Amino acid sequence: MANLFDLAAGLWDLLQDIDSDDEQWEHDAIELLQGEVTEKLDNCACMVKTLEGDADLAKAQVAHFQAKSAALKRRADSLKRYMADAVMELPKEERRGKECYPIVRGERYSIRVQQSPLGIDADLVDIHKLDRPFVKTTEAPMIRELLVHIKKTGEIPKGVEDALTEGKWGVRIG
Q1: Number of CB atoms found within 10 A of residue 40's CB
Q2: For the chain, what is the mean pLDDT?
Q3: Given a cut of 90, is residue 59 above it in pLDDT?
């Protein structure tokens, strides 16, 4: 079977070259070509619908897997919090001259509880109260520079007081 472009071109050529006395032959030829073009177009439409359906299915699968990924991440985080609580209930031990939570060594993993470093929630920083060195020209707080400044000087710049977040306890599996 010819491709759609050849069929359409053949139909166009036939319509342009009609100068025969046998009108029935012309009519039958045009009808045959139109039937083939119609069948081809119908098959193409079927393929388009199939491809669009596949694209919609893929989009739905992406959404499903994103939701599943988020749910699995939440489940892992919940289990980590549970593990951290369990380790924090154990008696502390001394390491490098400091009292620390113990490192639990299993057959496959060692589990330790540690506090994450100080952080700043950028959405809560009052840009208008910040000193210029801590603000990008796009008017976003320069979090890294703010944290370095706080760690070096111990001073909390104006506009950051309400945005400080405490270090959170988390589990590190190594």
Answers
A1: 18
A2: 84
A3: yes
* Structure-model confidence comparison of residues 147 and 138, the more confident one: 147
Q: What are phi and psi of 103, to 5 degrees?
A: -95, 120
CA 12 – CA 30 distance, rounded (Å): 9
Contact 84, 97 (CB under 8 A): no
Decide which of 156 and 12 is more confident.
156
Question: Domain range holding 141?
Answer: 93-173
58 and 37 in one domain? yes
97-115: average pLDDT: 91
Domain boundary at 32, 57, 87, which? 87
